[in-house]
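Example record

Each entry pairs one chain with its bound ligand, flavin-adenine dinucleotide.
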Amino acid sequence: MEHAYDYVIVGAGMSADAAIKAIREGAPEASIALIGDEREAPYQRPPLSKDLWNGDTDDADIMLETERQDVDMYLDRSVKLVDRAAHGLRDSEGDLFRYKRLLIATGAEPNQLPIESDRVVHFRTHDDYRRLRELATEGQHVAVVGGGFIGCELAASLAGNGVKVSWLFPGEGPGAGRFPEGLSEFLTGYYRERGVQVMPGSRVSGGKETDHGVELTLEDERTLAVDAVVAGLGVTPRTELAEAAGLRVDDGIVVDARLRTQDPDIWAAGDVASFHAMDLGRRIRVEHENAAVSMGAHAGRAMRGEDAAYTELPFFYSDLFDLGYEAVGVLDTGLEVVEDWAEPYQKGVVYYLERGRVRGVLLWNVWEKVDAARQLIAMPGPFDAKSLKGRIDKG
Ligand SMILES: Cc1cc2nc3c(=O)[nH]c(=O)nc-3n(C[C@H](O)[C@H](O)[C@H](O)COP(=O)(O)OP(=O)(O)OC[C@H]3O[C@@H](n4cnc5c(N)ncnc54)[C@H](O)[C@@H]3O)c2cc1C
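Structure tokens for the complex follow.
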């Protein structure tokens, strides 16, 4: 079949939803198609690892209601090819879509463990959540692999639901490399107190399915038998379409200040896009909700002709049991780290400094200070520990 649209969006995720809403706002008559390889219309991903587990929301509430925007949705099929010269796409059903303007919002895919088993979930989608719910019932033993934000959230959510959790990661503590050492150490104890078997220094090298579950093998040859495994090992941007179409890719799809690729009719947004963050003075790719939504909306407006630069510095948030944080910019303990605690590891602000400039701010249980953090990052400085402490009200 052949279709023709004013706007075609590839990837039915959070960025796509924001783009479609922004296009529709200024172009009520335009024809819009959305093509996505998941079975479902766009939904919010962040609740998959927290709110859906603690009862703060349910499955119906996470849907973004993109269909209200009068958009033709082609789900459960993937785009295989972009033919830029013909302004056309080919999908896995063999359909051809002609576009006037195209947005690539294909997100990122989870990195994989080298284990073949449907008891191993590489956590990203609503279906992955459903599968983990089936596997991780009360009393089951589940290995959470990965010490980043997905691992931190899932270890807390599963433990909070009566699941026996072993949490494995190669670093010295949760969030190592991002959180200051003391905070990371505190988190290890905090999770242990809540019944999680925290196993730092554990790198999974392989494993196999057994009659009763999965046996993991670690690099140091230890083994661990569990009922199921959930992995949060970071993600890889889904750039393959863009690459094959000859678009510039450098970690993510390279876009300009208007979120446009080097092709004047193709934009990219969200986890898959690499953009220049003005206030950080460098190109970055952000794998977080605020970036996905604000870039999607910006790209949508740009596609219908608004001419403005994307200047937002995205923030990130997470919840771990009853702790929570927001963060802006670069969290890297390789930078100079300035800690300003109101109460150690319960409430405080951490600044990440590079040659006197603030590059990142972690707001630990400190709320409504994201804009203050952004302003600080935009300032030329120079700053040091003395001038930073107390700069953002830590409450
Ligand atoms: C479990 C979880 C918890 C999270 N929690 C937080 C949080 O607390 N705070 C925060 O800030 N961020 C969080 N995030 C990150 C946030 O959800 C992502 O940054 C955001 O979803 C990215 O949106 P996106 O539209 O760029 O990509 P996605 O939402 O990944 O959407 C991309 C879509 O494109 C589809 N696709 C890819 N290639 C093709 C193709 N060729 N054809 C058709 N379809 C294709 C994909 O299957 C996917 O459905 C979380 C993410 C996960 C997975």
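The pocket of flavin-adenine dinucleotide is lined by residues 10-16, 35-38, 45-46, 48-49, 78-79, 105-108, 123-124, 150, 238, 241, 270-272, 287-290, 292, 316-318 (CB under 6 Å).
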